Amino acid sequence: MTMRERFFEASSALLERDARVAVVLADISAAAFGAAARRCPERVINVGIREQLMLGVASGLALEGFRPIAHSYAPFLIERAYEQVKLDFGHQGVGAILVSVGASFDWAEGGRTHHAPADVALMDALPGWVVQVPGHPDEVGPILEAAVRSDDATYVRLSVRSNRAAHATGGVTVVRRGGGATVVAVGPMLDSVLAATADLDVTVLYAVTVRPFDAAGLRAVAGDTVILVEPYLEGTSTHVVSEALQGRLHRTLAIGVPRVELRRYGTARDHEQAYGLDPHALRRRIQTFITTEGLAA
Amino acid sequence: MALAHEARLEGEAGETNGALAVSALMARMGGAEKHGPSASSTLDVLRVLYERVLRVSPATARAPERDRFVLSKGHGPMAYYAVLASRGFFDPSWLDAFGGFGSPLGHHPDRVLIPGVEVGSGSLGHGLPIAVGMALGLRARGLVGPRVVCLVGDAELDEGSNHEAIAFAARAGLEALSVVVIDNASASLGWPGGIGRRFEVEGWRVSTVDGRDHAALAVALADVRQRRPSAVVAVVEPKGGQ
User: Fold this and answer.
1) Chain B contact for A58, CB < 8 A?
2) Do A206 and A115 sit in the same domain of this protein?
3) With an 8 Å Cβ cutoff, are B130 and A60 in contact?
4) Of B118, B141, B161, which has the smallest distance from its Cβ to A56's Cβ?
5) A88 touches chain B (CB under 8 A)
């Protein structure tokens, strides 16, 4: 089962269990919510291909005390109506749960129009948002249930890229302890990071909740060298690492999706290779950075 | 007839007193030249809504059964602030610091700061989609009494988000939703065929009235449910023509 299917399953169950939950759609995934819409017709709302309205409706529902879940492809959910994301939730003093699919380049053949590598950077620019980047389908249900229980404004970024096993969600958790550098793997990047660093003496941390970032968790584990591996725009979390290690001499290498428009299709794996996000390239980049550490000292 | 005539005379006397009180309150907000014309265009509609139509008061400002008013056109909120103050939602002394650093009253209203303000606005085209969500929320809560009234400007209708909401609201049969469009002919490219047509073609119940005629506004803005949303186009003096 994919993350997206887990999302359908979990949100349909939540709709039945909790009368505060409402789902707002703009055609995408409407068929998957067909059964839920028949059971809860007043709380499963498809507004058609109208993303500004989808977010405004979610805001109005939140103002009426509901926990709205708005869902679409990442570019249409976050980028198309970004001012609605900015003004219709936090500015109104209400929360919502935004759940995207598509991630940075999941549908590689879909091209730039369906890719959203900048989504987390955009959410990072807004105050108060919780950002969840699960790395395995089994992590999706608990994240969604916790989001519904809270009143936070939460962005959940789903992907078809996935680790082999689910891990503890939340802030940074230690997956492998070693000496020297600390590698923070965000969501679906974990398996590639573990493969890339299998023979390197590094600590590997896993992060699903990237905002607010677990600064205390990182500070407690990390030494002076941090490598950040994110499945979205390169450098998105450099500033939070810098803040976490403030007052401590440290070096940071940020690895993620570069600011380029490739104009290539193929598969998500092809794109990871093109951007140096596959295990082989990751290993080379991480090892080079760690080796340079000695030279810099 | 005689009774109706008397009632009308009484209403007019009340209106004069109310107008004086509200304009005195508006005068307390200095330095607001930027939003002057847009502020006075909404004045009569706001007074009729709060004095005659909406079932909401400071005591019921958070009650589930209250009517909700969404000022989508957040520009020129002086009339709105003056009417809210005159109805007791906040102390009129707040008006003196309008726009000041420590004032809750900005040049666009913020619901987090001002009692009685349902939605913070200022960027055009946000209010109506939110009002649609509120009407859907009322329906999902089983609250059939309250209604949602959203005020937009004729130039604000340029924003495409309104048209997403206009099309959807009628097809969803949102009878608890009403829009009042203040038409001061300020849309740069106009609305050939009339503003009402944009709503009619989507199935809204539409009326066009003199936006300064309190009696006509009160009739047009009355809570009538006909399984579809309603729109009132309130025509006032052209923005550039004063």
Assistant:
1) yes
2) no
3) yes
4) B161
5) yes
Its pTM stands at 0.95
Q: Is the ipTM of this complex over 0.85?
A: yes
C-beta atoms of B129 and A45 within 8 A: no
CA–CA distance, A33 with A36 (Å, rounded to integer):
5
Does A99 map to a domain? Answer: yes
Q: Flag whether residue A52 sits within 8 Å of chain B, measured between CB atoms.
A: yes
User: How many structural domains are present in chain B?
Assistant: 1
Q: Which residue on chain B is closest to A81 by alpha carbon?
A: B161
Q: Does A64 touch chain B (CB under 8 A)?
A: yes
Query: Which residues in chain A touch residue B123, judged by CB atoms under 8 angstroms apart?
Result: 83, 87
The 3-state secondary structure of chain B reads CHHHHHHHHHHHHHHHHHHHHHHHHHHCCCCCHHHHHHHHHCHHHHHHHHHHHCCCCHHHCCCCCCCEEEECCCCCCHHHHHHHHHCCCCCHHHHHHCCCCCCCCCCCCCCCCCCCCCCCCCCCCCHHHHHHHHHHHHHHHCCCCCCEEEEEECCHHHCHHHHHHHHHHHHCCCCCEEEEEEECCCCCCCCCCCHHHHHHCCCCEEEEEECCCHHHHHHHCCCCCCCCCEEEEEECCCHHHC
pLDDT in tens, A56-97: 999 999 999 999 999 999 999 999 999 999 999 999 999 999
What is the percent of chain B with per-residue pLDDT over 70, rounded to a whole number?
Answer: 89
| Total number of domains constituting chain A | 2
Which residue numbers of B have CB closer than 8 Å to A's CBs? 110-112, 118-120, 123, 125-126, 128-141, 160-161, 164-165, 167-168
Domain final residue pick, A111, A131, A157: A157
CB atoms within 10 A of CB B55: 13
Q: Which residue of B has its CA nearest to A63?
A: B134
Residue A184 lies in a domain: yes
Q: pLDDT tens across B115-149, in order?
A: 999 999 999 999 999 999 999 999 999 999 999 99
User: Are A28 and A141 in a shared domain?
Assistant: yes
Mark which of A107, A122, A157 sits at the end of a domain.
A157
Nearest chain B CA: its distance from A39 CA (Å): 13
